[in-house]
Amino acid sequence: MNRYEELLLDLISTDDRIVVLTAENRGHLRTIPAQLGKRFMDVGIAEQTMIGAAAGLALRGRIVLAHALASFVTLRPFEFIRDDVGIPNLPVIMVGMVPGFLSDGNGPTHQAVDDVALMRGIPNIGVFCPADEDDFIIGMRDIILSGRPFYVRYINTPAFVEHDKSFEIGKAEIVRGPKKGRRDVTILTYGLLLKQSVQAAEILESHGLVVQVVNMRTLKPVDTAVLLDAARESSLVVTVEDHFKNGGLYSILADTVLDNAAPCKALAIALEERWFRPALLKDVLEFEGFTGEQIAVRIQRALELQPKDSYAELRFS
Amino acid sequence: MNQTETDELKRIALRVREHILRMSTDGGCFTGASLSCADLLVFLYSRFLNVSPETIASPDRDYLLLSKGHDVPALYGVFAELGFLDPERLKNHLKSNDHIYWHPNRAIPGVEFHSGSLGHLLSVSIGIATDIKLREGKNKVVVVLGDGELNEGTIWEGCLTANAWKLDNLIAVVDRNHFQANVRTEELIPLEPIVDKFKAFGWNVKSVDGHDYSAMDEVFSSWRPDSGSPTVIVASTQRGRGVPSIAERADRWFCNFTHDEVEQLIGELHGETAADLTSETLIVR
Asked: Which of A200, A223, A247, B33 suits a disulfide with B71, CB 3.0-4.6 Å?
Protein backbone atom coordinates (compact mmCIF):
# COMPACT_ATOMS: atom_id res chain seq x y z
CA MET A 1 0.00 0.00 0.00
CA ASN A 2 1.38 3.40 -0.92
CA ARG A 3 1.30 6.46 1.33
CA TYR A 4 -1.60 8.05 -0.52
CA GLU A 5 -3.67 4.91 -0.02
CA GLU A 6 -2.72 4.92 3.67
CA LEU A 7 -3.84 8.53 3.97
CA LEU A 8 -7.13 7.80 2.21
CA LEU A 9 -7.83 4.77 4.38
CA ASP A 10 -7.05 6.77 7.49
CA LEU A 11 -9.33 9.63 6.47
CA ILE A 12 -12.12 7.38 5.29
CA SER A 13 -12.13 5.37 8.50
CA THR A 14 -12.86 8.51 10.49
CA ASP A 15 -14.93 10.52 8.01
CA ASP A 16 -17.89 8.83 6.37
CA ARG A 17 -18.34 11.66 3.87
CA ILE A 18 -15.36 10.64 1.77
CA VAL A 19 -15.77 8.52 -1.36
CA VAL A 20 -13.22 7.64 -4.04
CA LEU A 21 -13.95 7.61 -7.76
CA THR A 22 -11.76 6.69 -10.66
CA ALA A 23 -12.16 6.66 -14.42
CA GLU A 24 -10.38 3.34 -14.59
CA ASN A 25 -7.11 4.77 -13.39
CA ARG A 26 -5.90 2.56 -10.59
CA GLY A 27 -2.14 2.93 -10.95
CA HIS A 28 -1.85 4.47 -7.51
CA LEU A 29 -5.00 2.91 -6.07
CA ARG A 30 -4.29 -0.78 -6.36
CA THR A 31 -4.70 -1.96 -2.81
CA ILE A 32 -7.54 0.02 -1.34
CA PRO A 33 -10.51 -0.68 -3.65
CA ALA A 34 -11.24 -3.92 -1.80
CA GLN A 35 -10.91 -2.21 1.56
CA LEU A 36 -13.11 0.73 0.62
CA GLY A 37 -15.93 -1.50 -0.59
CA LYS A 38 -18.85 0.53 -1.89
CA ARG A 39 -17.07 3.79 -1.22
CA PHE A 40 -14.73 3.06 -4.11
CA MET A 41 -16.39 3.44 -7.50
CA ASP A 42 -14.94 2.98 -10.95
CA VAL A 43 -16.99 4.61 -13.73
CA GLY A 44 -14.90 3.08 -16.46
CA ILE A 45 -13.19 5.23 -19.07
CA ALA A 46 -15.75 7.99 -18.75
CA GLU A 47 -14.28 11.13 -17.22
CA GLN A 48 -17.32 13.32 -17.88
CA THR A 49 -19.64 10.89 -16.15
CA MET A 50 -17.15 10.64 -13.29
CA ILE A 51 -17.20 14.39 -12.67
CA GLY A 52 -20.98 14.67 -13.09
CA ALA A 53 -21.49 11.77 -10.68
CA ALA A 54 -18.97 13.34 -8.30
CA ALA A 55 -21.08 16.49 -8.30
CA GLY A 56 -24.22 14.47 -7.54
CA LEU A 57 -22.49 12.68 -4.68
CA ALA A 58 -21.14 15.96 -3.31
CA LEU A 59 -24.61 17.49 -3.54
CA ARG A 60 -25.71 14.77 -1.11
CA GLY A 61 -22.96 15.67 1.35
CA ARG A 62 -20.01 13.60 0.17
CA ILE A 63 -16.42 14.71 -0.30
CA VAL A 64 -15.38 13.13 -3.58
CA LEU A 65 -11.88 12.30 -4.80
CA ALA A 66 -11.95 11.80 -8.57
CA HIS A 67 -8.92 10.21 -10.24
CA ALA A 68 -7.64 10.03 -13.80
CA LEU A 69 -4.51 11.01 -15.67
CA ALA A 70 -3.97 14.74 -15.22
CA SER A 71 -4.62 15.52 -18.88
CA PHE A 72 -7.82 13.43 -18.92
CA VAL A 73 -9.26 14.65 -15.62
CA THR A 74 -8.92 18.28 -16.64
CA LEU A 75 -9.54 18.38 -20.38
CA ARG A 76 -12.18 15.78 -21.29
CA PRO A 77 -14.60 16.78 -18.50
CA PHE A 78 -13.61 20.46 -18.46
CA GLU A 79 -17.16 21.72 -18.90
CA PHE A 80 -18.44 19.27 -16.27
CA ILE A 81 -15.86 20.63 -13.82
CA ARG A 82 -16.82 24.20 -14.68
CA ASP A 83 -20.59 23.68 -14.68
CA ASP A 84 -21.21 20.93 -12.15
CA VAL A 85 -18.38 21.47 -9.66
CA GLY A 86 -17.28 25.09 -10.13
CA ILE A 87 -20.64 26.85 -10.40
CA PRO A 88 -22.18 25.10 -7.34
CA ASN A 89 -18.80 25.11 -5.50
CA LEU A 90 -19.03 21.45 -4.47
CA PRO A 91 -16.24 19.61 -2.61
CA VAL A 92 -14.89 17.48 -5.44
CA ILE A 93 -11.12 16.94 -5.57
CA MET A 94 -9.80 16.16 -9.03
CA VAL A 95 -6.56 14.20 -8.61
CA GLY A 96 -4.48 14.19 -11.78
CA MET A 97 -1.89 11.47 -12.26
CA VAL A 98 1.43 11.97 -14.11
CA PRO A 99 1.08 15.73 -14.56
CA GLY A 100 3.57 17.84 -16.49
CA PHE A 101 6.90 16.19 -17.29
CA LEU A 102 5.88 13.10 -15.30
CA SER A 103 4.00 11.82 -18.35
CA ASP A 104 7.46 10.92 -19.73
CA GLY A 105 7.13 9.19 -23.07
CA ASN A 106 3.35 9.27 -23.45
CA GLY A 107 3.32 12.07 -25.98
CA PRO A 108 1.39 15.31 -26.24
CA THR A 109 -2.10 13.83 -25.77
CA HIS A 110 -1.08 12.89 -22.22
CA GLN A 111 0.88 16.02 -21.37
CA ALA A 112 -0.93 18.01 -18.71
CA VAL A 113 1.01 21.22 -19.24
CA ASP A 114 -2.06 23.44 -19.41
CA ASP A 115 -3.83 21.98 -16.38
CA VAL A 116 -2.96 24.75 -13.94
CA ALA A 117 -4.18 27.40 -16.39
CA LEU A 118 -7.43 25.53 -17.02
CA MET A 119 -8.28 24.70 -13.44
CA ARG A 120 -7.35 28.03 -11.90
CA GLY A 121 -9.46 29.72 -14.55
CA ILE A 122 -12.63 28.26 -13.03
CA PRO A 123 -14.07 30.31 -10.15
CA ASN A 124 -14.07 28.46 -6.80
CA ILE A 125 -11.61 25.76 -7.85
CA GLY A 126 -8.29 25.66 -6.01
CA VAL A 127 -5.02 24.23 -7.32
CA PHE A 128 -2.51 22.24 -5.25
CA CYS A 129 0.79 21.24 -6.85
CA PRO A 130 2.98 19.48 -4.28
CA ALA A 131 6.69 19.04 -4.91
CA ASP A 132 7.06 15.36 -4.02
CA GLU A 133 5.41 12.56 -2.07
CA ASP A 134 6.17 14.04 1.36
CA ASP A 135 4.80 17.43 0.34
CA PHE A 136 1.72 15.75 -1.16
CA ILE A 137 1.01 13.74 1.97
CA ILE A 138 1.59 16.79 4.22
CA GLY A 139 -0.91 18.91 2.31
CA MET A 140 -3.50 16.48 1.05
CA ARG A 141 -5.42 16.04 4.32
CA ASP A 142 -6.13 19.78 4.49
CA ILE A 143 -7.04 19.87 0.80
CA ILE A 144 -9.52 17.00 1.15
CA LEU A 145 -11.11 18.44 4.26
CA SER A 146 -11.15 22.02 2.98
CA GLY A 147 -14.78 21.77 1.91
CA ARG A 148 -13.98 23.32 -1.45
CA PRO A 149 -13.18 21.93 -4.89
CA PHE A 150 -9.53 21.44 -5.75
CA TYR A 151 -7.41 20.20 -8.58
CA VAL A 152 -4.33 18.33 -7.37
CA ARG A 153 -1.25 17.42 -9.35
CA TYR A 154 -0.50 13.98 -7.92
CA ILE A 155 3.17 13.20 -7.30
CA ASN A 156 4.90 10.34 -5.53
CA THR A 157 8.56 11.05 -6.25
CA PRO A 158 10.85 10.83 -3.20
CA ALA A 159 11.41 14.07 -1.32
CA PHE A 160 14.58 16.00 -2.16
CA VAL A 161 14.29 18.44 0.74
CA GLU A 162 12.89 18.28 4.26
CA HIS A 163 9.49 19.93 4.09
CA ASP A 164 7.80 22.17 6.59
CA LYS A 165 5.18 19.94 8.23
CA SER A 166 2.89 22.88 8.81
CA PHE A 167 0.70 23.28 5.78
CA GLU A 168 -1.74 26.04 5.09
CA ILE A 169 -3.77 26.49 1.93
CA GLY A 170 -2.48 29.65 0.26
CA LYS A 171 0.92 29.59 2.01
CA ALA A 172 4.10 28.88 0.12
CA GLU A 173 7.14 27.17 1.64
CA ILE A 174 10.56 28.83 1.47
CA VAL A 175 12.84 25.84 1.14
CA ARG A 176 16.22 27.49 0.65
CA GLY A 177 17.91 30.83 1.06
CA PRO A 178 17.06 33.84 3.23
CA LYS A 179 13.46 34.12 4.44
CA LYS A 180 13.54 37.88 3.87
CA GLY A 181 15.76 40.75 2.82
CA ARG A 182 17.61 41.48 -0.41
CA ARG A 183 18.72 38.66 -2.64
CA ASP A 184 19.93 38.32 -6.19
CA VAL A 185 17.44 35.70 -7.31
CA THR A 186 14.16 34.21 -6.12
CA ILE A 187 13.16 30.98 -7.83
CA LEU A 188 9.43 30.30 -7.60
CA THR A 189 8.43 26.78 -8.50
CA TYR A 190 5.99 23.94 -7.91
CA GLY A 191 5.87 20.22 -8.46
CA LEU A 192 8.77 18.00 -9.41
CA LEU A 193 10.98 20.88 -10.58
CA LEU A 194 11.61 21.94 -6.99
CA LYS A 195 14.53 19.51 -7.11
CA GLN A 196 16.08 21.08 -10.21
CA SER A 197 15.39 24.55 -8.81
CA VAL A 198 17.30 23.74 -5.63
CA GLN A 199 20.16 22.29 -7.70
CA ALA A 200 20.25 25.49 -9.75
CA ALA A 201 20.31 27.55 -6.56
CA GLU A 202 23.30 25.55 -5.28
CA ILE A 203 25.23 26.35 -8.47
CA LEU A 204 24.29 30.03 -8.36
CA GLU A 205 25.28 30.24 -4.70
CA SER A 206 28.67 28.75 -5.57
CA HIS A 207 29.11 31.79 -7.80
CA GLY A 208 28.42 34.07 -4.86
CA LEU A 209 24.75 34.85 -5.52
CA VAL A 210 22.11 35.01 -2.81
CA VAL A 211 19.20 32.84 -3.91
CA GLN A 212 15.83 32.00 -2.40
CA VAL A 213 13.84 28.97 -3.58
CA VAL A 214 10.10 28.88 -2.98
CA ASN A 215 7.85 25.81 -3.21
CA MET A 216 4.49 27.40 -4.03
CA ARG A 217 2.37 24.42 -2.84
CA THR A 218 -1.04 25.91 -3.71
CA LEU A 219 -1.19 28.01 -6.87
CA LYS A 220 -4.75 29.00 -6.08
CA PRO A 221 -5.16 30.53 -3.66
CA VAL A 222 -1.63 31.77 -4.15
CA ASP A 223 0.68 33.21 -1.53
CA THR A 224 0.56 36.81 -2.70
CA ALA A 225 2.85 38.00 0.10
CA VAL A 226 5.65 35.66 -0.99
CA LEU A 227 5.28 36.74 -4.63
CA LEU A 228 5.36 40.43 -3.75
CA ASP A 229 8.33 39.97 -1.44
CA ALA A 230 10.13 38.22 -4.28
CA ALA A 231 9.28 41.08 -6.64
CA ARG A 232 10.41 43.77 -4.22
CA GLU A 233 13.50 42.15 -2.74
CA SER A 234 15.09 40.26 -5.67
CA SER A 235 17.09 41.49 -8.62
CA LEU A 236 15.48 38.73 -10.64
CA VAL A 237 12.37 36.61 -10.07
CA VAL A 238 12.40 33.27 -11.86
CA THR A 239 9.42 30.99 -12.32
CA VAL A 240 10.21 27.35 -13.05
CA GLU A 241 7.35 25.11 -14.12
CA ASP A 242 6.57 22.08 -16.28
CA HIS A 243 3.62 23.91 -17.76
CA PHE A 244 2.95 26.33 -20.58
CA LYS A 245 4.22 29.79 -19.80
CA ASN A 246 0.74 30.99 -20.69
CA GLY A 247 -1.56 30.64 -17.70
CA GLY A 248 0.81 29.08 -15.18
CA LEU A 249 2.92 30.48 -12.37
CA TYR A 250 4.56 33.13 -14.56
CA SER A 251 1.10 34.46 -15.43
CA ILE A 252 0.12 34.37 -11.76
CA LEU A 253 3.25 36.36 -10.88
CA ALA A 254 2.48 38.86 -13.65
CA ASP A 255 -1.09 39.33 -12.42
CA THR A 256 0.10 39.76 -8.86
CA VAL A 257 2.80 42.32 -9.54
CA LEU A 258 0.50 44.32 -11.82
CA ASP A 259 -2.32 44.29 -9.30
CA ASN A 260 0.04 45.55 -6.61
CA ALA A 261 2.17 47.97 -8.63
CA ALA A 262 5.26 45.91 -7.82
CA PRO A 263 7.10 45.57 -11.13
CA CYS A 264 10.11 43.29 -11.20
CA LYS A 265 12.58 41.76 -13.57
CA ALA A 266 11.32 38.26 -14.26
CA LEU A 267 12.37 35.16 -16.16
CA ALA A 268 9.97 32.40 -17.19
CA ILE A 269 11.42 28.93 -17.40
CA ALA A 270 8.43 27.12 -18.82
CA LEU A 271 7.16 25.59 -22.03
CA GLU A 272 6.55 28.12 -24.73
CA GLU A 273 3.90 27.48 -27.40
CA ARG A 274 4.56 23.78 -27.83
CA TRP A 275 4.42 20.42 -26.10
CA PHE A 276 7.58 18.81 -24.79
CA ARG A 277 9.59 16.10 -26.52
CA PRO A 278 8.29 12.75 -25.23
CA ALA A 279 11.01 10.67 -23.57
CA LEU A 280 11.92 9.28 -20.18
CA LEU A 281 11.91 12.01 -17.55
CA LYS A 282 15.69 12.38 -17.33
CA ASP A 283 15.96 12.93 -21.08
CA VAL A 284 12.95 15.25 -21.14
CA LEU A 285 14.61 17.49 -18.56
CA GLU A 286 17.84 17.62 -20.55
CA PHE A 287 16.20 18.14 -23.92
CA GLU A 288 13.92 20.88 -22.69
CA GLY A 289 16.58 22.68 -20.63
CA PHE A 290 15.20 21.98 -17.16
CA THR A 291 18.16 20.31 -15.42
CA GLY A 292 19.58 22.19 -12.44
CA GLU A 293 22.62 23.19 -14.44
CA GLN A 294 20.60 24.40 -17.42
CA ILE A 295 18.30 26.40 -15.17
CA ALA A 296 21.36 27.98 -13.53
CA VAL A 297 22.75 29.00 -16.92
CA ARG A 298 19.47 30.51 -18.02
CA ILE A 299 19.33 32.53 -14.82
CA GLN A 300 22.93 33.69 -15.18
CA ARG A 301 22.22 34.84 -18.73
CA ALA A 302 19.14 36.72 -17.57
CA LEU A 303 21.31 38.41 -14.97
CA GLU A 304 23.75 39.22 -17.79
CA LEU A 305 26.46 37.23 -16.05
CA GLN A 306 28.91 35.17 -18.06
CA PRO A 307 28.52 31.53 -17.08
CA LYS A 308 31.99 30.29 -16.21
CA ASP A 309 31.72 26.54 -16.39
CA SER A 310 31.48 24.08 -19.19
CA TYR A 311 27.82 23.42 -18.47
CA ALA A 312 27.09 26.74 -20.17
CA GLU A 313 27.51 24.98 -23.44
CA LEU A 314 24.88 22.36 -22.73
CA ARG A 315 22.22 22.32 -25.37
CA PHE A 316 18.78 23.47 -24.44
CA SER A 317 15.98 25.23 -26.21
CA MET B 1 -56.71 7.52 -11.25
CA ASN B 2 -60.32 8.69 -11.52
CA GLN B 3 -61.85 11.36 -13.73
CA THR B 4 -61.92 13.97 -10.95
CA GLU B 5 -58.20 13.50 -10.36
CA THR B 6 -57.43 13.68 -14.07
CA ASP B 7 -59.51 16.83 -14.42
CA GLU B 8 -57.63 18.43 -11.55
CA LEU B 9 -54.26 17.74 -13.22
CA LYS B 10 -55.61 19.17 -16.47
CA ARG B 11 -56.67 22.32 -14.65
CA ILE B 12 -53.20 22.68 -13.13
CA ALA B 13 -51.56 22.08 -16.52
CA LEU B 14 -53.72 24.75 -18.11
CA ARG B 15 -52.48 27.30 -15.57
CA VAL B 16 -48.88 26.10 -16.05
CA ARG B 17 -49.25 26.72 -19.79
CA GLU B 18 -50.58 30.21 -19.05
CA HIS B 19 -47.47 30.87 -16.97
CA ILE B 20 -45.28 29.64 -19.85
CA LEU B 21 -47.03 31.93 -22.32
CA ARG B 22 -46.75 34.89 -19.95
CA MET B 23 -42.99 34.27 -19.79
CA SER B 24 -42.86 34.25 -23.60
CA THR B 25 -42.67 38.03 -23.90
CA ASP B 26 -40.42 40.88 -22.76
CA GLY B 27 -37.38 38.86 -23.77
CA GLY B 28 -39.20 35.59 -24.26
CA CYS B 29 -38.33 31.99 -23.45
CA PHE B 30 -38.19 28.51 -24.95
CA THR B 31 -41.93 28.27 -25.28
CA GLY B 32 -42.30 25.22 -27.53
CA ALA B 33 -40.15 22.89 -25.42
CA SER B 34 -41.76 24.12 -22.22
CA LEU B 35 -45.24 23.36 -23.51
CA SER B 36 -44.23 19.83 -24.54
CA CYS B 37 -43.15 18.74 -21.05
CA ALA B 38 -45.77 20.67 -19.04
CA ASP B 39 -48.09 17.68 -18.60
CA LEU B 40 -45.18 15.43 -17.69
CA LEU B 41 -43.99 17.76 -14.97
CA VAL B 42 -47.50 18.31 -13.62
CA PHE B 43 -47.97 14.56 -13.44
CA LEU B 44 -44.57 13.82 -11.90
CA TYR B 45 -44.86 16.44 -9.15
CA SER B 46 -48.52 15.70 -8.45
CA ARG B 47 -48.58 11.91 -8.59
CA PHE B 48 -45.15 10.30 -8.74
CA LEU B 49 -42.53 12.24 -6.83
CA ASN B 50 -42.41 12.16 -3.07
CA VAL B 51 -41.51 15.81 -2.64
CA SER B 52 -43.44 18.86 -1.51
CA PRO B 53 -42.66 22.48 -0.60
CA GLU B 54 -42.20 21.25 2.98
CA THR B 55 -39.70 18.51 2.08
CA ILE B 56 -37.45 20.17 -0.51
CA ALA B 57 -34.50 19.92 1.88
CA SER B 58 -35.25 16.46 3.23
CA PRO B 59 -32.58 13.86 2.44
CA ASP B 60 -35.41 11.38 1.91
CA ARG B 61 -37.20 13.36 -0.80
CA ASP B 62 -37.45 12.24 -4.39
CA TYR B 63 -35.34 14.24 -6.82
CA LEU B 64 -36.21 15.66 -10.23
CA LEU B 65 -33.46 17.13 -12.35
CA LEU B 66 -34.24 19.00 -15.53
CA SER B 67 -31.38 18.16 -17.85
CA LYS B 68 -32.98 19.92 -20.82
CA GLY B 69 -32.92 23.10 -18.78
CA HIS B 70 -34.35 25.42 -21.41
CA ASP B 71 -37.85 24.17 -20.61
CA VAL B 72 -37.63 25.64 -17.12
CA PRO B 73 -40.73 27.86 -17.57
CA ALA B 74 -42.73 24.62 -17.32
CA LEU B 75 -40.97 23.72 -14.07
CA TYR B 76 -41.47 27.19 -12.61
CA GLY B 77 -45.12 27.10 -13.68
CA VAL B 78 -45.53 23.79 -11.82
CA PHE B 79 -43.68 25.19 -8.80
CA ALA B 80 -45.96 28.23 -8.78
CA GLU B 81 -49.10 26.07 -8.94
CA LEU B 82 -48.00 23.52 -6.34
CA GLY B 83 -46.78 25.98 -3.72
CA PHE B 84 -43.00 25.73 -4.17
CA LEU B 85 -42.71 29.24 -5.53
CA ASP B 86 -44.69 32.46 -5.07
CA PRO B 87 -46.42 32.94 -8.45
CA GLU B 88 -45.74 36.67 -8.18
CA ARG B 89 -42.04 35.92 -8.67
CA LEU B 90 -42.70 34.73 -12.22
CA LYS B 91 -43.19 38.40 -13.07
CA ASN B 92 -39.47 38.78 -12.34
CA HIS B 93 -38.63 36.64 -15.37
CA LEU B 94 -35.35 37.94 -16.86
CA LYS B 95 -35.07 40.73 -14.29
CA SER B 96 -31.91 41.18 -12.28
CA ASN B 97 -33.81 41.40 -9.00
CA ASP B 98 -34.46 37.63 -9.08
CA HIS B 99 -33.00 34.40 -10.44
CA ILE B 100 -35.70 33.44 -12.92
CA TYR B 101 -34.00 33.21 -16.27
CA TRP B 102 -33.78 30.89 -19.27
CA HIS B 103 -32.23 27.97 -17.40
CA PRO B 104 -32.84 26.49 -13.95
CA ASN B 105 -30.70 27.28 -10.94
CA ARG B 106 -30.69 26.38 -7.28
CA ALA B 107 -31.55 29.86 -6.07
CA ILE B 108 -35.16 28.87 -6.83
CA PRO B 109 -36.58 26.59 -4.12
CA GLY B 110 -37.22 23.11 -5.46
CA VAL B 111 -34.61 23.26 -8.22
CA GLU B 112 -32.21 20.44 -7.44
CA PHE B 113 -29.44 21.40 -9.83
CA HIS B 114 -28.74 24.00 -12.47
CA SER B 115 -28.52 23.08 -16.12
CA GLY B 116 -28.16 24.73 -19.48
CA SER B 117 -25.43 22.84 -21.23
CA LEU B 118 -27.03 19.63 -22.46
CA GLY B 119 -25.90 16.15 -21.48
CA HIS B 120 -24.88 16.91 -17.91
CA LEU B 121 -27.60 15.92 -15.50
CA LEU B 122 -27.81 12.20 -16.21
CA SER B 123 -24.35 11.91 -14.69
CA VAL B 124 -25.23 14.21 -11.78
CA SER B 125 -28.34 12.07 -11.23
CA ILE B 126 -26.13 8.98 -11.21
CA GLY B 127 -24.15 10.55 -8.36
CA ILE B 128 -27.29 11.37 -6.38
CA ALA B 129 -28.80 7.92 -6.98
CA THR B 130 -25.51 6.30 -5.97
CA ASP B 131 -25.38 8.20 -2.71
CA ILE B 132 -28.97 7.18 -1.95
CA LYS B 133 -27.95 3.56 -2.55
CA LEU B 134 -24.91 3.92 -0.30
CA ARG B 135 -27.18 5.19 2.47
CA GLU B 136 -29.78 2.51 1.72
CA GLY B 137 -32.38 5.20 1.08
CA LYS B 138 -35.66 4.59 -0.68
CA ASN B 139 -35.90 7.82 -2.67
CA LYS B 140 -36.14 7.97 -6.43
CA VAL B 141 -34.19 10.17 -8.81
CA VAL B 142 -35.94 11.34 -11.96
CA VAL B 143 -34.00 13.09 -14.71
CA VAL B 144 -35.85 14.70 -17.60
CA LEU B 145 -33.93 14.50 -20.88
CA GLY B 146 -34.77 16.15 -24.15
CA ASP B 147 -34.83 13.97 -27.24
CA GLY B 148 -32.46 16.34 -29.02
CA GLU B 149 -30.24 16.04 -25.97
CA LEU B 150 -29.75 12.37 -26.80
CA ASN B 151 -27.28 13.58 -29.45
CA GLU B 152 -24.82 14.19 -26.59
CA GLY B 153 -22.33 11.36 -26.05
CA THR B 154 -22.39 11.82 -22.31
CA ILE B 155 -25.97 10.54 -22.22
CA TRP B 156 -24.83 7.18 -23.56
CA GLU B 157 -21.73 7.18 -21.37
CA GLY B 158 -24.05 7.68 -18.40
CA CYS B 159 -26.35 4.91 -19.65
CA LEU B 160 -23.42 2.48 -19.51
CA THR B 161 -22.48 3.52 -15.99
CA ALA B 162 -26.05 3.53 -14.60
CA ASN B 163 -26.51 0.01 -15.94
CA ALA B 164 -23.15 -1.14 -14.55
CA TRP B 165 -24.01 0.28 -11.13
CA LYS B 166 -27.55 -1.21 -11.21
CA LEU B 167 -29.15 2.12 -10.33
CA ASP B 168 -32.75 0.96 -10.14
CA ASN B 169 -33.68 4.11 -8.22
CA LEU B 170 -32.90 6.18 -11.32
CA ILE B 171 -35.61 7.00 -13.84
CA ALA B 172 -34.88 8.95 -16.99
CA VAL B 173 -37.87 10.51 -18.72
CA VAL B 174 -37.34 11.48 -22.34
CA ASP B 175 -39.51 14.36 -23.51
CA ARG B 176 -39.88 12.90 -26.99
CA ASN B 177 -41.32 15.93 -28.80
CA HIS B 178 -39.53 15.01 -32.05
CA PHE B 179 -37.81 18.38 -32.35
CA GLN B 180 -34.43 19.69 -31.53
CA ALA B 181 -33.76 23.40 -31.65
CA ASN B 182 -34.48 24.15 -35.27
CA VAL B 183 -35.40 20.92 -36.99
CA ARG B 184 -37.17 17.61 -36.48
CA THR B 185 -34.92 15.08 -34.77
CA GLU B 186 -35.41 12.42 -37.43
CA GLU B 187 -34.40 14.84 -40.17
CA LEU B 188 -31.11 15.73 -38.47
CA ILE B 189 -29.79 12.94 -36.26
CA PRO B 190 -32.31 10.08 -36.37
CA LEU B 191 -32.96 8.67 -32.91
CA GLU B 192 -35.27 5.80 -33.70
CA PRO B 193 -35.50 3.12 -32.57
CA ILE B 194 -35.05 4.89 -29.20
CA VAL B 195 -36.62 2.10 -27.17
CA ASP B 196 -34.27 -0.49 -28.64
CA LYS B 197 -31.27 1.72 -28.01
CA PHE B 198 -32.00 2.02 -24.30
CA LYS B 199 -32.87 -1.69 -24.07
CA ALA B 200 -29.51 -2.51 -25.62
CA PHE B 201 -27.87 -0.49 -22.82
CA GLY B 202 -29.58 -2.70 -20.24
CA TRP B 203 -32.29 -0.31 -19.10
CA ASN B 204 -35.94 -1.06 -18.37
CA VAL B 205 -37.79 0.84 -21.10
CA LYS B 206 -41.40 1.98 -21.28
CA SER B 207 -43.23 4.29 -23.65
CA VAL B 208 -46.13 6.52 -22.79
CA ASP B 209 -48.22 9.36 -24.17
CA GLY B 210 -46.77 12.33 -22.28
CA HIS B 211 -50.03 14.24 -22.45
CA ASP B 212 -52.36 11.43 -21.26
CA TYR B 213 -52.61 11.44 -17.46
CA SER B 214 -54.29 8.04 -17.19
CA ALA B 215 -51.62 6.49 -19.40
CA MET B 216 -48.83 8.15 -17.40
CA ASP B 217 -50.44 6.95 -14.19
CA GLU B 218 -50.50 3.40 -15.46
CA VAL B 219 -46.89 3.42 -16.67
CA PHE B 220 -45.35 5.22 -13.72
CA SER B 221 -47.33 3.14 -11.20
CA SER B 222 -45.91 0.02 -12.76
CA TRP B 223 -42.38 1.18 -11.87
CA ARG B 224 -40.95 -0.94 -9.07
CA PRO B 225 -37.93 -0.31 -6.88
CA ASP B 226 -35.30 -3.05 -6.68
CA SER B 227 -35.64 -4.11 -10.31
CA GLY B 228 -31.87 -4.13 -10.53
CA SER B 229 -31.75 -1.81 -13.54
CA PRO B 230 -32.34 1.86 -14.28
CA THR B 231 -35.55 2.76 -16.07
CA VAL B 232 -36.25 5.07 -18.96
CA ILE B 233 -39.70 6.24 -19.89
CA VAL B 234 -39.97 7.60 -23.41
CA ALA B 235 -42.85 10.07 -23.29
CA SER B 236 -44.29 10.98 -26.66
CA THR B 237 -45.15 14.65 -26.60
CA GLN B 238 -45.86 17.49 -28.97
CA ARG B 239 -43.79 20.65 -29.07
CA GLY B 240 -45.99 23.65 -28.40
CA ARG B 241 -48.76 21.40 -27.04
CA GLY B 242 -52.00 23.21 -26.21
CA VAL B 243 -51.49 26.15 -28.51
CA PRO B 244 -52.12 24.97 -32.11
CA SER B 245 -50.73 28.03 -33.84
CA ILE B 246 -47.23 27.31 -32.49
CA ALA B 247 -47.46 23.52 -32.09
CA GLU B 248 -44.98 21.40 -34.03
CA ARG B 249 -43.45 24.38 -35.72
CA ALA B 250 -39.72 24.30 -36.20
CA ASP B 251 -39.63 28.09 -36.19
CA ARG B 252 -41.34 28.44 -32.77
CA TRP B 253 -38.62 27.17 -30.51
CA PHE B 254 -37.59 30.31 -28.71
CA CYS B 255 -40.47 32.78 -28.72
CA ASN B 256 -40.62 36.43 -27.82
CA PHE B 257 -44.21 37.53 -28.41
CA THR B 258 -45.84 40.92 -28.02
CA HIS B 259 -48.15 41.35 -25.04
CA ASP B 260 -51.12 41.31 -27.40
CA GLU B 261 -49.95 38.05 -28.95
CA VAL B 262 -49.59 36.48 -25.52
CA GLU B 263 -53.20 37.36 -24.70
CA GLN B 264 -54.33 35.90 -28.03
CA LEU B 265 -52.32 32.71 -27.37
CA ILE B 266 -53.86 32.35 -23.92
CA GLY B 267 -57.25 32.72 -25.60
CA GLU B 268 -56.25 30.00 -28.02
CA LEU B 269 -55.16 27.82 -25.11
CA HIS B 270 -58.70 28.15 -23.75
CA GLY B 271 -60.24 27.15 -27.08
CA GLU B 272 -60.86 30.57 -28.54
CA THR B 273 -59.87 31.62 -32.06
CA ALA B 274 -56.34 31.12 -33.34
CA ALA B 275 -53.81 33.82 -32.57
CA ASP B 276 -52.64 36.13 -35.32
CA LEU B 277 -48.87 36.04 -34.86
CA THR B 278 -46.59 38.53 -36.55
CA SER B 279 -43.57 38.58 -34.23
CA GLU B 280 -40.23 37.31 -35.38
CA THR B 281 -39.72 33.55 -35.61
CA LEU B 282 -36.63 31.39 -35.33
CA ILE B 283 -34.92 33.45 -32.67
CA VAL B 284 -31.88 31.49 -31.65
CA ARG B 285 -30.61 31.91 -28.12
From this structure: B33
